[in-house]
Amino acid sequence: MTQRQQVLYLWMAGSSLDEKVVGWAFHDGTEGAGPQLPEPKRPGDGPYSNGLCALQDGWMLLQSAQLTSPAPGQEHLNAYLEYEFVFERRVDLS
User: Fold this and answer.
1) Nearest alpha carbon to residue 82 among 61, 71, 66, 60
2) E strand or H helix that includes residue 93
3) pLDDT, tens digit, for every residue of 27-75?
4) What is the rounded CA–CA span in Å between residue 29 and residue 65?
5) End-to-end alpha-carbon separation of the chain, Å?
């Protein structure tokens, strides 16, 4: 049996897993042979409303957001989404 990895990035509105998802990316090492993400409830929504929903769906948390203070004078710049959580699941392919 061969295993492949699926990776899910979720960017949250804050530093907690129960915060609202504001961005996401999915990378499928199974080339579509593994389970797919759930359909969003509304157009434009992500596959999960928060990180806890991803955990409940079988995703494993690999990395949580690092909590770092912004540099003085940079508190209000929106250069990137800082609350990034990385999840994975491994899929058995026959």
Assistant:
1) 66
2) strand 84-93
3) 999 999 999 999 998 888 999 999 999 999 999 999 987 777 777 887 6
4) 23
5) 5
